[in-house]
Amino acid sequence: MTESSSLPAPKAGAGVVDLLRQFKADPSAAAAYAADCLARTKAVEPRLKAFEYLPSDVAPRRGPLGGIPVAIKDIIATSDMPTTNGSPIYRDHIPAADAWVVERLRNLGATIFGKTVSTEFAWRHPGPTVNPWNPEHTPGGSSSGSAAAVAAGLVPLALGSQTLGSVIRPAAFNGVVGLKPSFGAIPRVGVHPLSPSLDHVGFFARRVDDVALALALLAGASDADLHGRPLAPFAIDIDRGVPPLDKPRLAVVRFAKWERAEPELQALFEAVINKLRSAGAVLEELELAALDAINWSAINTIMLSEATVIFDSLIARYPDRVSDVMKSHVESGKSRSAMEYLAAKAAQEQRRAALTAELNGFDAVLTLPAFGEAPRGLHWTGDAEYCAPWTFVGAPAVSLPAGFGRNGLPLGVQVTGRYRDDVRVLGVAKWVEAALAFNPGLPPVAG
Question: What residues are labeled active site?
Answer without folding.
Answer: 73, 142, 166
